[in-house]
Design brief:
By secondary structure, the protein is of the alpha/beta class. It is built from 6 helices and 7 strands, in the order E-H-E-E-E-H-E-E-H-E-H-H-H. A hairpin with a 2-residue loop joins strand 2 and strand 3.
Length: 191
């Protein structure tokens, strides 16, 4: 039986709730709710929940390190649980280069300017791990990127993001049951 570490990227604290940068936390919350996993245990510089998704052991993770230091928590978890980082690590993040609500699954690749992914890549020493990116829309001209990703969604965008979190949870189950390639074929559509 393979074990999966599923990490949602975000920042802890009420001031970050429902921000674009916290969609990774939102997806973890959605998956935890659907699978009946309680994500409350503080361990490995994160809040974690243990359970099973699609019949496989999983640890759902919300790092407490803040976005820019996410790799510290991820490295600690991988070392402790001896999980294969190329096939057993799934990272969930926001992406400003994708339209609001669109998903993109990859098995490797650059951080694309995302500081959380950049830090994970630095701590792993490679970029070959599964990531599910949820589009939060492009930053408007003349906006500071930090202000944009720490901003909140409009009501119509929030509805799209809730649907994206639902699809992302389904994509995670597909990755676990059928592999990342099958999930990429199903969820990386141009729709």
């Amino acid at each position: 039986m393979t074990m999966y570490i599923i990490v949602g990227l975000g920042n802890f604290g009420k001031e970050y709730n429902n921000t674009r940068h916290n969609i990774g936390f939102d997806i973890i919350d959605r998956l935890a709710e659907q699978e009946g996993i309680s994500v409350l245990e503080k361990k490995h510089r994160a809040v974690i929940g243990k359970g099973s998704v699609a019949g496989q052991k999983c640890i759902l993770v919300k790092p407490l390190t803040y976005m820019n230091l996410s790799g510290e928590c991820v490295r600690e978890l991988l070392d402790y649980y001896k999980v294969d980082e190329t096939s057993g690590l799934i990272v969930l993040s926001d992406d400003v280069s994708l339209p609001v609500g669109k998903l993109r699954i990859r098995k490797k690749g650059s951080a694309g300017g995302h500081n959380g992914l950049k830090n994970i890549i630095a701590h792993l020493g490679h970029d070959s791990f599964i990531r599910v990116r949820a589009g939060v829309g492009e930053k408007p001209a003349h906006w500071d990127l930090a202000d944009y990703v720490l901003g909140r969604f409009s009501a119509p965008e929030r509805k799209l993001m809730d649907e994206a979190a639902e699809r992302a949870a389904e994509a995670i189950r597909t990755i676990i049951e059928q592999g990342a390639d099958a999930a990429m074929n199903l969820f990386n559509s141009t729709k």
